[in-house]
Amino acid sequence: MVAFYVEQGAVVDDANAHRETPLSCAVYWALNGKEQIYSTDHHLICRMLLDYKADVNSRDEDFRTPLHKAAWNCDHVLLNMLLEAGAEANLMDDNGCAPLQYVLKVTDVLQACCSYPRAVEVIVNTYEHIRCTTKWRTAIPDDLFETYRSFYESLFEACANTPRSLKHLARCAIRRILLHKCHKRIPLLLLPAILKRYLLLEPEGIIY
């Protein structure tokens, strides 16, 4: 039905009374709160809307983006999808919260996402520095910690009470200047491909 309506002239970013776009609604309702299961149909709808150039950083009446809602639901599939489509993880809602604060503010949410370190890595790397707590480790089951030991050890070390690497701080400064234009401007820079991928936050499996 998404394809049908768009082909018939529907505006992909047309908002409802709460300033929610179809993408924002699809992201939010991808989680069945009662059953605590994710809808693959909603994931597919989100993918189609993004393919039709839906605004990945649209803001509703509470200034929440689709990424805020995916983070609130701890939907690792949509977190990856939205970030890869250019979602800005630094945008604040009207409570002054960025998406990461919804993802990692409680241990049970981290536990739900810890088997998908790529999503955690991309979001953490959008911030200059985040200080971890002992609750982060206790939220990760031992078997998953062992499976992704190198990643999580690098996460805890990078998020200790010390500055991140100069390379990472330079990346944050560049992305702060470019803001929502990162995914358009960075590919045009006269830089080696490996540095472009680094600036675009492509996961490396380790944090430093």
UniProtKB/TrEMBL annotation:
Keywords: ANK repeat, Repeat. SMART domains: ANK (SM00248), SOCS_box (SM00969). The keyword 4Fe-4S does not apply. Pathway: Protein modification; protein ubiquitination. ANK repeats lie at residues 62-94. GO terms for cellular component: cytoplasm. Residues 161-199 form the SOCS box domain. It comes from the Eukaryota. It holds the Pfam family SOCS_box. Coiled coil: none annotated. InterPro entries: Ankyrin_rpt (IPR002110), Ankyrin_rpt-contain_sf (IPR036770), SOCS_box (IPR001496), SOCS_box-like_dom_sf (IPR036036). The keyword Nucleus does not apply. GO terms for biological process: intracellular signal transduction; protein ubiquitination. PANTHER family: ANKYRIN REPEAT AND PROTEIN KINASE DOMAIN-CONTAINING PROTEIN, ANKYRIN REPEAT AND SOCS BOX PROTEIN 10-RELATED. This is Ankyrin repeat and SOCS box protein 4. The gene is ASB4.
